[in-house]
Amino acid sequence: MKARYKDHGLDNFNDVNVLELLLFYAIPRKDTNEIAHALLEHFGSLDRVLEASIPELEAVPGVGESSALLISLIPQIMRRYLTVKGNCVSTISGSADAGRYLVPRLMFEKDEKLLLLCLDAKKSVISCINLGSGVVNAVDVNVRKVVENAVRHRANTVILAHNHPGGVALPSREDERLTIEIAAALKLVGIPLVDHIIVAGDDYVSFADSGMMGLPNG
Q: Of 3, 36, 41, 102, which residue is most buried, by most CB within 10 angstroms?
């Protein structure tokens, strides 16, 4: 299995093979094929295996603490890698740049999280601020906190971003209401809200691209 990977990468591996090879590094003296099959049968797909919590993984027969920790580490390393890559996007000239910068910061979060991206007059990133997180669909948004952070960081424009854990990247009525409220509050201090990015997995939707930033107040 290691020789196959060394010679060809994962191109000729199926999902069972991928897990089988990964598990070998946590359980080196055991045939891991059966455990790989059990994981896929339990969770239904490779992505769900990788996104499962440590207690969920440990509930599968044959999966101990070391195996669960190793599996759960993979998406976290991936997010760190993509975040580092996203940091190379120093100028946000549109939703594509915003997506590359923001999606890695939200894609594997299990709770809803709200970010504020502050840009200068040249659209360069000043800061990316975590404004709050909580249970799914229950981020407590303090509009005053949004405005205070934008002013404190001397933002010329700002972009909001939040995630829909386990959902789809489509704006809800509450998302629309929140966008209107925050845009109106920021307008009072002369800082335009130019976009609101909603992330679900590795997918995202841009309010600006969807023509939703001009929603009427009220």
A: 102
CB-based contact 150:115 (threshold 8 Å):
no
Bridge-partner residues for 195, per DSSP?
A: 159
Mean pLDDT in residue range 193-213: 91
Q: What is the chain written as a DSSP string?
A: -HHHHHHHTTTT--HHHHHHHHHHTTSTTS--HHHHHHHHHHHSSHHHHHHS-HHHHHTSTT--HHHHHHHHHHHHHHHHHHHHHHTT--B--SHHHHHHHHHHHHTT-SSEEEEEEEE-TTSBEEEEEEEEEESTT-----HHHHHHHHHHTT-SEEEEEEE-TTS-S---HHHHHHHHHHHHHHHTTT--EEEEEEEETTEEEETTTTT-TTPPP-
Structure tokens given for 134: 């909580």
